[in-house]
Amino acid sequence: xxxxxxxxxxxxxxxxxxVNRIKADLRSKGEDIIDFGMGNPDMPTPSHIxxxxxxxxxxxxxxxxxxxxxxxxxxxxxxxxYKKRFNVNLDPEKEVIVTLGSKEGLANLAQAMTTPGDIIxxxxxxxxxxxxxxxxxxxxxxxxxxxxxxxFNPELFLExxxxxxxxxxxxxxxLIVSFPSNPTAQVVGLDFYEEVVKIARKHKTYILSDLAYxxxxxxGKPPPSILQVKNAKNIAVEFTSMSKTYAMAGWRIGFxxxxxxxxxxxxxxKSYLDYGAxxxxxxxxxxxxxxxxxxxxxxxxxxxxxxxxxxxxxxxxGWNIPSPEASMFAWAPIPTKYxxxxxxxxxxxxxxKAHVAVAPGIAFGEYGEGFVRIGxxxxxxxxxxxxxxxxxxxx
Length: 395
Description:
The chain is of the alpha/beta class. Helices cover 43% and strands 14% of the residues. It folds into two domains: 6-44 and 295-394, Alpha-Beta Complex (Aspartate Aminotransferase, domain 1), CATH 3.90.1150.10; 47-290, Type I PLP-dependent aspartate aminotransferase-like (Major domain) (Aspartate Aminotransferase, domain 2).
């Protein structure tokens, strides 16, 4: 009998577990930890969405199984959103599926489309489910570094992408892209996506785009969708989420849209795995998409305010952090004092000596070393207090 199951053995040690253990230990002793470690929205879900949930949940029959691929009204609402936001036409019957969050959708699509030994191209650093969803499914990874001296270089990325595909044997089945990026908050323009689609079409490689932060952007620069590129639907599927846009992370509603073959594959595998989200939650999600969008701009404004306070207060503390253009994260180079000690050591010291939790960059891949990810999930007063604590550590 094997000591460890093969799929589990293929996964690396979970770096977050050590940081989380320290955090739990400190809190058990009554310590107040200012927690920037997890991208977990702290603001309330807008009231009209909650009211729709209440209204629906008391109706007879709503406790029954739902629809695995999502109720028709929610799929139609998502297709309307894409038309209004990106001017992209989607068939809600064949090109839209509701998922239990974008993370579940991507992991299940990995299971649906992967044969053991397939090659997948994934950014590095990256949100863990991007590479490891495919590792669990049996694929082999080729990492694409996304940072050049701490800055995203689109031209270099495209050069690496084309070279990686040309020199891979067998050819990669899929490429993952994620902009605005988690963890790095990198953003790209439509011209970048046009080049990615051109390369992928030339090599007959699918594209999986994670657009979970589509509506969390600052300074009036909304991120594009890869599906805006002509003929992108021939090879691309895109994941979005209600989690950050409407502060609905725990509701577990996301979407996959685009390429019909990939949507059909995801639909089939999900039909074996789940019965869909609770129907009242789906109805409320449709109300969110179809209803007034002032709440979205208000949530975005809160994140922007926190971003500005973070950058300014940390600068006064002696820690210069680049200002992110989008997402709910800042990707921060570790201070000079910790350059040789690494991101995990810095994260541990922040926790034990400054009572501030961040995510070490190494947790997102080896090319994340030298950075930490800071979630904009504490209010402005707490952010200022964190900066005061950190200043003492950096002296």
